[in-house]
Amino acid sequence: DIQMTQSPSSLSASVGDRVTITCRASQSISSYLNWYQEKPGKAPKLLIYAASTLQSGVPLRFSGSGSGTDFTLTISSLQPEDFATYYCQQSYSTPLTFGGGTKVEIK
Amino acid sequence: QVQLVQSGSELKEPGASVKVSCKASGYTFTAYVVNWVRQAPGQGLQWMGWINAKTGNPIYAQDFTGRFVFSLDTSVSTAYLEISSLKAEDTALYYCARGNSDNYHSADYWGQGSLVTVSS
């Protein structure tokens, strides 16, 4: 199975900050990397697929990059509604696997 | 619009079975897969597997073989997750999500989740 390692597991940031979350795969997954946002009491929401393609309706302050084994999710200017937990997921091969999550908290 | 609507919360005793439903609308049900994802209390997301809604072929993650069964009723655009011989550690929120092979197999639409609680 492909292991996905996210870092950090949590971070504190202020509104307006630039935030970067990293995700590393245990083997090359090309660009088969997706990012999801989860808020308490809500289902996860797809933000980015194929490492860097923004899902329809997702604000442009979100961006993704990387290929192979190393990926990043960047929020260019953190907004109040962005405080949530973010997960990466590889969809290169089954079993699809998620990273452990990164909780973004208010500083 | 695309929607996945799941069945409600369930409270079951250990050893019982439960069947969670996921009714899809707003798209051609048989053109996509349906993923199942578990989230134990306070934990992260765990992919359980998927079922191809066109062929009916399921793929299970290793932790979800044996007691977990994915099924379909394409006549009503509904996917099902059945868990037998329930254990306390099966207590979790279970999500269905549409898998889109055109978008790198990402899960682009999710149900609201079904809480299964296993307790005597």
Could you describe the 3D structure shown?
The complex is a heterodimer of chains A (107) and B (120). Chain A is mainly β and 107 residues long. Helix content of chain A is 0%, strand content 50%. In chain A, the strands form two sheets. In chain A, strands 2, 4, 5, 6, 9, 10 and 11 form a seven-stranded mixed sheet that branches. A four-stranded antiparallel sheet of chain A has the order 1-3-8-7, with no helix packed on it. In chain A, a hairpin with a 6-residue loop joins strand 9 and strand 10. Chain A is globular, with a radius of gyration of 13 Å. The model of chain A has no long low-confidence stretch (mean pLDDT 97). By secondary structure, chain B is mainly β. Helix content of chain B is 0%, strand content 52%. Chain B contains no helices and eleven strands. Chain B has strands at residues 3-6, 10-12, 18-25, 33-39, 46-52, 58-60, 68-73, 78-83, 92-100, 106-110, 114-118. In chain B, strands 2, 4, 5, 6, 9, 10 and 11 form a seven-stranded mixed sheet that branches. A four-stranded antiparallel sheet of chain B has the order 1-3-8-7, with no helix packed on it. In chain B, a hairpin with a 5-residue loop joins strand 5 (46-52) and strand 6 (58-60). Chain B is globular. The mean pLDDT of chain B is 97.
